[in-house]
Automatic annotation (TrEMBL):
Biased amino acid composition, Polar residues: 564-576
Record keywords, A-Z: Membrane, Transmembrane, Transmembrane helix
Organism for this UniProt entry: Enterococcus larvae
Annotated PANTHER family: PROTEIN-GLUTAMINE GAMMA-GLUTAMYLTRANSFERASE
Regions of compositional bias (Low complexity) in chain numbering: 577-594
Presence of keyword Transmembrane helix: yes
Protein name as catalogued: Transglutaminase domain-containing protein
Sequence ranges assigned to domain Transglutaminase-like in this UniProt record: 474-548
């Protein structure tokens, strides 16, 4: 024991350091808390592994540590007793059965902690007993890279420390056993200094070049998006980090930003002929952090048979009337409104409430199913291009005129948090455009097509407490979802004196069937969305779509350069609309929708990446296996031969002799006894065992003496074990 402790105590310290760095991310994800007892348990595990090698001793000690820590985290309302242990076993068994049956689609805390404790013990044994730092390193880093890929934690510092410690471990392992204590200490200190400098340089690099840190996030964006659509992040969040927003419509938009978890729960189903964006409400006041309404007055509507909803600013023609039927999964109070003229029969609904400042309708009795009649606004893109860029400054003298036209001062206002560089950017984007429509499209296309901006729900960050939300998105993170893109467009347009506002609701959803000649669109929480609206005189508030991969069917498409058969155009439009699948949006309120094209692309990229990742992992495992086999080939062959022919001493000795000759060359015609002496002179670690075996072999071969198995069997095993470990070179 003393020799083992003397040899491996430094490895035990480094192993403890690595495990201490590696374990907190797991505890944070499952909200278990990095308690002093957990750190103490890691120290005990490393100490047990250092002091004892016999499984009959280490197993009960590991088990006691295991049970004490489990009780610390899961007392289950019991004192530390057999009753508590029985309750814990029942809890773990129940959770396990629920996972197998599909009742649970996430990893419960109890099972997760049981698994991670076993994993940590295995790592300690690998690093201290077997001195395998790189295998342990690959396992730890692989696990932490999964957390980085999910982007729930920032682990660059942790990975850096683990890498440097593994390198130090490797460097110390290479030192020969015969080196003096003073030289070993000098090597340790020098290695520490070198790796500290490397760690400092790597940390400084990522601070000086922050764009390098986002490389992994960019490369794995499609994977995270795919898992988010499957609902994986939502399941992780149930026992993971708190504070992550979930997709769906919510009332509070005062604080936007941060990652968003998809929720695939169905909100309502729409039976209709054409897809629509479903507007719930609009907001007029940007605060620098989110959206509010300047005023909010409730007006009850109940003394009429039909509620007519239309934009007072629109004076153009209308399309034919169509029926839309809505069926809600759970009763909701708000009315999803398609763009156009809407007639809603109030019979059986019990009246409605209107909040005119928010363009919102609340249904009094929150019916689960009703129908409305819709007429399309019949205008084309050319009509908008002909709208003059109005000067709204005169409204400051007479806001009554502005109110009658649907434009009030709130649609121009910006908070003081909007910086000069945001206003400068707005000027640069629009200075070559002379028309209102041209300026609006210039801003929209900048956000929608600029490769500097990246759409991601999982990588979106919060701005600093003293930083403007749009400023952070446009110039710092450049990563976001619909809330970021739509808010940025409104701010940039208002900076140019163009009246605009923020709308929220749901994207069209996905086609899931057909009924009575109408297409069935399923709208989920993950289809919640936000977008900007811009005021065009004579046409009212027109929706636009700056978010990449999204197309608003209620915005007129750009005219085709060449004439196309109308039936082909309709078919193309129908296919494009039907292929839309929506994503999620806002931090505690809206979520976005993505198209099937993006979903299929993400899925294809994910499958391709999974294929190459699997191939890489397979090759890596094959290489590790080959290296292990190459290093342990002799010992494996020896043990196999001994198991097959346990009494064949002569051939077993010849197997050992051939291995010895690979390490120390035997001269031609050199007698075995002399070679054995030379071999042991060069390899004193055998302590006479090889000479003794050679003597027994010669006596057996030439003297025909009966050999004592009790004597040569342990000598064979001892010599083979030593031969399997190549001597370290000074």
């Amino acid at each position: 024991m003393r020799d083992r402790v003397k040899k491996n105590w430094l490895f035990a310290i480094l192993a403890f350091f690595i495990l201490t760095i590696a374990s907190p991310p797991f505890l944070e994800v499952y909200q278990l808390g990095n308690s002093p007892l957990f750190i103490g348990m890691l120290a005990v595990i490393c100490l047990i592994t250092l002091l004892f090698k016999d499984f009959l001793i280490t197993f009960p000690l590991y088990l006691i540590s295991y049970i004490i820590l489990l009780y610390n985290y899961f007392p289950l309302g019991h004192s530390f007793s057999l009753e508590w242990f029985t309750a814990l076993v029942d809890e773990v068994t129940l959770s396990y059965n629920q996972i197998l049956s599909g009742e649970l689609s996430y990893m419960p805390q109890t099972i997760a902690l049981v698994i991670i404790l076993f994993f940590l013990i295995a790592l300690a044994v690998l690093m201290i007993h077997y001195e395998r730092p790189w295998l342990s390193y690959l396992l730890i880093v692989g696990y932490q890279l999964l957390l980085v890929a999910f982007n729930q934690l920032e682990l660059s510092g942790s990975l850096l420390l683990i890498t440097c410690t593994a390198l130090l471990f490797h460097q110390l392992k290479k030192l020969p056993d015969t080196i003096s204590r003073s030289r070993r200490s000098q090597s340790f200190v020098l290695s520490m200094m070198v790796f500290a400098l490397l760690a400092g340089a790597a940390y400084s690099f990522q601070q000086l070049f922050p764009q390098a840190r986002s490389f992994l996030f960019i490369q794995t964006d499609s994977i995270r998006d795919y898992f988010n659509q499957l609902g994986l992040y939502q399941h992780i969040a149930q026992y993971g980090q708190s504070g992550l927003s979930k997709s769906g419509f919510s009332e509070d938009d005062q604080q936007l930003g941060g990652p968003l978890l998809d929720d695939a729960a169905v909100v309502f189903t729409a039976y209709q002929q054409d897809p629509h964006y479903w507007r719930i409400e609009t907001k007029d006041t940007y605060t620098g952090k989110g959206w509010e309404n300047s005023n909010s007055s409730l007006h009850f509507i109940g003394n009429q048979d039909t509620l007519i909803l239309e934009d007072v600013g629109y004076s153009g023609p209308l399309g034919p009337e169509a029926v839309i039927r809505l069926a809600f999964t759970d009763a909701v109070s708000y009315l999803p409104q398609p763009y156009g003229r809407v007639q809603l029969p109030l019979n059986g609904i019990g009246g409605a409430e209107e909040i005119s400042e928010k363009n919102r309708i609340n249904l009094k009795e929150a019916p689960k199913e009703f129908q409305l009649y819709w007429q399309e606004l019949a205008y084309e893109e050319d009509d908008l291009q002909n709208v003059l860029l109005s000067d709204y400054s005169f409204y400051s003298d007479d806001w009554q005129i502005a109110a009658e036209s649907g434009v009030t001062s709130q649609y121009f206002e910006l908070p003081t948090s909007v910086s000069d560089r945001t206003i400068t950017l707005a000027n640069e984007l629009t200075h070559n455009e002379t028309s209102l429509y041209g300026k609006v499209k210039a801003v929209e296309q900048y956000l929608k097509t600029n490769e500097e901006f990246r759409y991601s729900k999982t990588d979106t960050t919060y701005p600093a407490s003293d930083q403007d939300y749009v400023e952070h998105f446009l110039f710092d993170s450049k990563v976001g979802y619909c809330d970021n893109f739509s808010t940025a467009m409104v701010v940039l347009l208002r900076a140019q004196g163009i009246p605009s506002r923020w709308a929220k609701g749901f994207a069209p959803g996905e086609v899931t069937g057909e009924q009575d000649g109408l297409l069935e669109y399923t709208i989920r929480n993950s289809h919640a969305h936000s977008w900007p609206e811009v005021y065009f005189e004579g046409y009212g508030w027109i929706p636009f779509e700056p978010t990449p991969s999204f197309d608003n069917p209620d915005t007129p498409a750009e005219p085709a350069v060449e004439s196309v058969d109308s039936s082909e155009t309709l078919e193309s439009s129908t296919i494009a609309s039907s292929n839309e699948v929506n994503d999620s949006s806002s931090s505690a309120n809206t979520s976005e929708s993505s198209s099937v094209e993006k979903t299929e692309s993400s899925s294809t990229e994910w499958r391709s990446l999974l294929k190459w990742s699997s191939s890489f992992i397979g090759i890596l495992l094959a290489v590790i296996g080959a290296l292990f086999l190459r290093k342990n080939y002799f010992l494996l062959r020896y043990r196999l031969y001994r198991r097959i022919k346990p009494n064949d001493f002569n051939n077993t000795y010849l197997l050992i002799l051939r291995q010895a000759e690979k390490q120390y060359t035997r001269a031609a015609n050199e007698p075995l006894a002399r070679y054995a002496q030379h071999f042991e002179d060069d390899n004193p670690r055998f302590d006479g065992s090889f000479i003794a075996l050679t003597k027994i072999y010669e006596e057996s071969l030439y003297g025909k003496q009966q050999m004592d198995r009790r004597k040569w069997r342990p000598l064979l095993d001892q010599t083979a074990e030593i031969l399997a470990v190549r001597p370290k070179k000074n």
